[in-house]
Write a structure and sequence with these properties.
232 residues, alpha+beta, Arc Repressor Mutant, subunit A
Length: 232
């Protein structure tokens, strides 16, 4: 058995137009009948409102409802959940895969203007058939392939938002600078004192902020890994 993640740029569809934005989304639920497609999309983005406007203005979109929205401390939107109604003249990619007998795993995702589908396949011949099928909608590629069953679990946008909210702006500033300056490299390029001097704070303050930020990340990873292992 093979586990594959296939990516396709759906030509002429609103999902392809999102390529200009920095975002990640997942379709939590969807259905298609009599050329009518209904879907529930949750996504995070640098410019949430711009993504919502793009979806609403797309040619085949009939209605977009914002069901939920999260914001940063300064009020800037970070993520949203959309209920989308649209009309298709042909069966969409995912529904086509299912109709042709392919076995999907998990939720389709959306990133970089491409739709991503995880499939469980019998062999490479079936993989080639799936790629050829998606090529009818636009350029299709194999983003991931394993000869063992493997389901790639990705943290939900709302979980990532909770992590970011748990890290204060000051802590995040120290953490971002530490990453940018190479503090976490095997051979450290800078010291805590260097980071403190650049930020105009004391060494003790920089160390405290960095320690607290790392603790929040480690707690998140511990909870997330337990969730994957089924031990939580």
């Amino acid at each position: 058995m093979l586990t594959a993640r296939l990516a396709v740029r759906y030509d002429g569809n609103w999902t392809a137009e999102l390529a200009a934005h920095d975002y990640y989304g997942e379709f939590l639920a969807y259905t298609f009948r009599n050329n009518r497609w209904l879907g529930l999309l949750v996504f995070s983005a640098d410019d949430v409102d711009a993504v919502i406007d793009l979806v609403r203005d797309a040619d085949n979109i009939d209605e977009v409802q914002v069901l939920d929205r999260t914001t940063a401390d300064d009020g800037t939107p970070r993520s949203a959940m959309l209920f989308i109604r649209s009309t298709y003249r042909r069966i969409p990619p995912m529904e086509t895969l299912v109709y042709e007998g392919f076995f999907p795993i998990g939720n389709p995702s959306l990133e970089g203007g491409r739709l991503h589908y995880d499939l469980l396949l019998e062999d490479r011949e079936e993989l080639a058939l799936a790629v050829d099928l998606l090529d009818e909608f636009g350029q299709a590629t194999v983003a991931y392939l394993s000869e063992e069953f493997r389901y790639q679990t990705i943290p939900r946008p709302e979980d990532l938002e909770s992590l970011i909210d748990a890290i204060s702006p000051r802590q995040l500033a120290v953490l971002a600078l530490a990453v940018d300056r190479g503090y976490f490299e095997e051979r450290r390029a800078v010291t805590i004192q260097d980071l403190a001097d650049e930020l105009g704070i004391t060494k003790a303050t920089a160390s405290k902020h960095l320690r607290k930020a790392r603790l929040q990340i480690l707690r998140f990873l511990d909870t997330y890994l337990q969730r994957i292992d089924g031990t939580e």
